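An instance as discussed:

___
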Amino acid sequence: MKYSMKRQFAIIFIGLMTGTILLCWFINNTLLERYYLANKKDAIYAAYDRIRESMEAGGIFSDAFITELNQTCGKYNIGIMVIDMNSKVRICVGAEKEVMQQALLDNIYMINENQEQLDVTNGVNGDYYILQSVMDNRTRTRFLEMWGWFQNGNFFMLRSSLESIKESVAISNRFLAYVGMAAAFASGIIIWFVSRKVTEPILELTDISERMIHLDFEAQYSGKSKTEVALLGENINKLSGALEKTISELKTANNELKKDIEQKNKIDGMRKEFLSNVSHELKTPIALIQGYAEGLKEQINEDAESREFYCDVIMDEAAKMNTMVKKLMTLNELEFGNDNVTMERFDIASLIRNYIQSASILTSRNDITVKLQERGPIYVWADEFKTEEVFMNYFTNAVNHAAGEKIIEVTFTNPNPASVRISVFNTGVQIPEDCIGLIWDKFYKIDKARTREYGGSGVGLSIVKAIMNSMNQSFGVNNCEDGVEFWFELDTAGSGEVAGANVGK
């Protein structure tokens, strides 16, 4: 990803860390020497105060004090020398006596011009000292020196080399640079993996939101942490459920609105057409019932077998009339908009699989082989009950018209990425081309004798048409090489692509 948060986190943290190391290196290189010099000055001042206190107390030449001076000189790299008024060296620790004497004489007689006075003080009770930075002309080494005299007239000299400071600063900077580079490299690797761990929940939420864009609400955030990201994930889960419910309601309302707009223009024509067709379809069974009933009454055939046949015909025609009336009532409700369409999300593949299993007795009795394309879940938006009725009409129609090899094949295809097509193919006689546009009309029958043979009313495909129109979806029929294929389409709901192709027979 071009603008990956993981990369941005890593770059920011590595940049901050590198900048911090560089800042530390700059401060170390710029201020460490001054800090070291200030500490050296404090050490010399502390040694001077301690010598003066011991001088006033009279214990300056004791063995204990000399030991203390040796410890101070070793700790702070200071040379100390005290000379009495007779020019006799009374104390010399931490440096060679001749070197200290020569340095004191150079200062007293101002022989060395390479010096910078840092502090000149007249102390209490007549003490006097000068603190200065001096370049030794013989060794070309810079020293920090304090020299002067006490109130009793004794001279003193405290001296410490400053070259070690520069060397220590250089070593410290080099060490800091090496450690900084190693730390930057190691921390960069750690930060990269840590940032990936931090951004994983965000990437998961990004994937979930992208799936929600395509109306797939199956994905749920499953993080178990207590961070703000986890709280965001919980809210997205709630939002997903709310969106699914709202979309279902909106699709239902949208279908209702479209249906209401069209309903007013169709009602009058549908009523006239309905009355005309019903009277036509009921004419034949009523005539049969009336004729056979009159025959029974007039006792045309007195034998029991004939009377039983007459009764069977009357019952069969009455049953057909009852079935037709029920279908007409269903169709009437659909066409007049009295039957609400509830859009919901369900697995169409599971619905079809369950129906075919329940119809296995019917297909076995007619020696029909059913082939169902195996599919995982295919989620769609539709009215589940009415979708099952559409498939039932297609499947029943295929059973009644299956011939030849007697095969029924059910497949799923994708006419476009946002919908799925369900096809029901059966081997048998093709539909005449001039009849294909008429089979969806109420009471239309291609072969009236065959339709009456299996008890068809010519209303089933009209019900399919009414249901599909109520859901604003496409449907149709194709003649194939060795049979007929009926199909209908539904909007998908984040179920993924449907593999396969249209059946070509």
Summary: Residues 448-455, 495-505 have pLDDT under 50 and may be disordered. The radius of gyration is 53 Å. The first helix runs from residue 5 to 57. DSSP finds eleven helices and 13 strands in the chain.
